[in-house]
UniProtKB/TrEMBL annotation:
It holds the Pfam family Peptidase_C25. The keyword Oxidoreductase does not apply. Residues 14-165 form the Gingipain propeptide domain. This is Gingipain domain-containing protein. Keywords: Signal. The keyword Cytoplasm does not apply. GO terms for biological process: proteolysis.
């Protein structure tokens, strides 16, 4: 079957907006070819500077993507190819399912979808992701490579133009100053110091108490929607675990019963997966636990540390697994960016480092203070499995970090972010003994996939270090949108949105 990449035009509704134009330029030296050792019939093809196709079973060929402020029917894309390069006698390797970051290996079968090999895939694809505060957001994918099954050739665009008639979407930096806090009556007294502090800083803080049976899904969702409509709230904090105030149960690749708060905070219908409100949970069973967790947010904003050197320190923990990139490459890139932009000291714990990558070594690092900590590896719900020696919940009380900067933890591992007591994330937020734990924690509630959460974590760092967001929730959402702009698999983007939950203050001031 023949195909032509020259002068492809996807027609849709015209717009009066100024067009965005992009140049596609690929040098022959950017194209990498590697025969597969497992499946001899296929060859890996990649192009430096581009992403690859993410549709499972399809040829893994280069793709460029953009987020656009419009619905799919409003978007017109013009893709002109001026020059291509053909690779003969090559059948590109098919995209495989993502590995899991759970503690136990999952059995996967080799996937190939012959439909995508028999005929070319659409050169332009548009997916609607949702609406952010009334702004529709779609992702435009332009496929720069195609496979011809008749000739057994790959053709890659090396010189071309892409023109999109609607403006690009970037996560906005706007003034945000309004909170809604939803709490069970028996825990509300733990909010006093926090609400007083926030109001002293010019924030509007609404507090709503709920009791059974008014704390069911529909009632909580309606309450949050009411405050969004009437007060345009920017932040929301739910006090209580998933049993105290329920979570939605949604089907994701990690679990068909994934506990998720996302639907509380999307305001534009069932096909909207972009939250309009930056939100978090405070998992607590007592007034004292609520007070203690939020006191760490107050301390962070006041910079009231006896030793504040940790504000210029990043801790990265990397497994010895993964490829294209590996976990160690992801963590190294984040650490390098912190060092380059902020002059931060980087404490890097690689799994193969027997001397330092262990619970005692990590706690020594935490005891010096750090503003950010990113972990990438496997998790069980109660552990980080990819230090050289596993770090368990029981090691958290051995920290001695009361007087130093407590970290914001980005956890790229399975199950550790479950919103119940005794999980790793909640244990960092509610430590026992003399440990102070973490200022905030961002993790997944179920089994999560390999690369998308890592790309998100990379995006959180890159976007914040570039744009200097004021609030933690902004940096986290910018990371999610960074993933959405670089990963052309809508289902996997939505999964990541539904997995990840913040514990702590979404309005935490992180400008320092």
């Amino acid at each position: 079957m023949k195909f032509n990449l020259i002068g492809l035009i996807l027609l849709a509704t015209l717009s009066s907006h100024a067009a965005e134009k992009f140049k596609v330029s690929i040098h022959s030296t950017d194209i990498k070819i590697q025969s597969s050792q497992k499946e001899n019939a296929f060859t890996h093809v990649s192009v430096d500077g581009t992403e690859s196709e993410k549709t499972v079973g399809a040829p893994e060929l280069p793709v460029k993507s953009w987020l656009v402020q419009a619905k799919p029917e409003q978007i017109k894309v013009q893709f002109k190819s001026f020059k291509t390069e053909k690779l003969s006698n090559i059948k590109p390797y098919p995209v495989q399912e993502q590995d899991c970051r759970c503690a136990q290996d999952q059995i996967k079968t080799f996937k190939v979808n012959n439909k995508f090999y028999a005929q070319p895939m659409n050169s332009v694809n548009i997916d609607y992701l949702g609406s952010y505060r009334g702004i529709p957001v779609s992702r435009v994918d332009v496929r720069l490579g195609q496979y011809n099954s008749e000739t057994n050739e790959v053709e890659i665009v090396t010189d071309g133009d892409v023109t999109i008639n609607m403006p690009l979407f970037t996560y906005p930096q706007t003034e945000r100053n309004s909170y809604l806090i939803v709490s069970p009556l028996e825990l509300v007294d733990g909010l006093t110091a926090f609400t007083e502090w926030k109001r002293s800083q010019g924030y509007t803080v609404h507090v709503e108490t709920v009791t059974s049976p008014s704390n069911d899904l529909n009632a909580i969702q309606a309450l949050i929607k009411k405050y969004y409509d009437e007060h345009s709230i920017d932040f929301a904090i739910i006090v209580g675990d998933e049993n105290t105030i329920p979570m939605f149960r949604v089907s994701t690749s990690g679990s068909y019963q994934t506990p998720s708060d996302l639907k509380y905070f999307t305001m534009d219908g069932a096909d909207d997966y972009i939250p309009d409100v930056l939100a978090s949970r405070i998992v607590a069973t007592s007034v004292e636990q609520v007070t203690a967790q939020l006191a760490k947010s107050i301390e962070f904003e006041q910079r009231a540390f006896q030793d504040a050197s940790g504000l210029r320190r990043f801790i990265g923990i990397a497994s010895n697994e993964g490829s294209n990139p590996s976990d160690n490459q992801y963590i190294t890139s984040i650490g390098d960016r912190h060092k380059e932009v902020n002059g931060s000291e980087v404490l890097h714990y690689y799994q193969n480092d027997r001397e330092n990558s262990n619970p005692a070594g990590l706690n020594r690092g935490l005891n010096t203070g750090a503003a950010w900590l990113t972990y990438m590896g496997h998790g069980s719900g109660t552990s980080w499995d990819n230090l050289n020696q596993t770090y368990y919940v029981r090691h958290i009380p051995e920290m001695r970090n009361q007087t130093v900067v407590k970290p914001i933890i980005i956890d790229v591992a399975c199950q550790n972010g479950r919103l119940l007591s005794r999980y790793l994330g909640t244990s960092f937020m509610n430590p026992t003994g003399e440990a102070a734990g973490a200022a905030a924690y961002y993790g997944g509630t179920v089994n999560i996939s390999w690369h998308p959460p890592a790309v998100m974590a990379q995006g959180i760092a890159f976007q914040h270090l570039e744009k200097k967001f004021k609030h933690l929730g902004e940096a986290l959402m910018a990371g999610q949108m960074y993933l959405a702009s670089r990963w052309n698999n809508k289902t996997q983007i939505i999964d990541n949105m539904e997995w990840y939950h913040l514990q702590g203050d979404p309005g935490l001031n992180i400008q320092f």
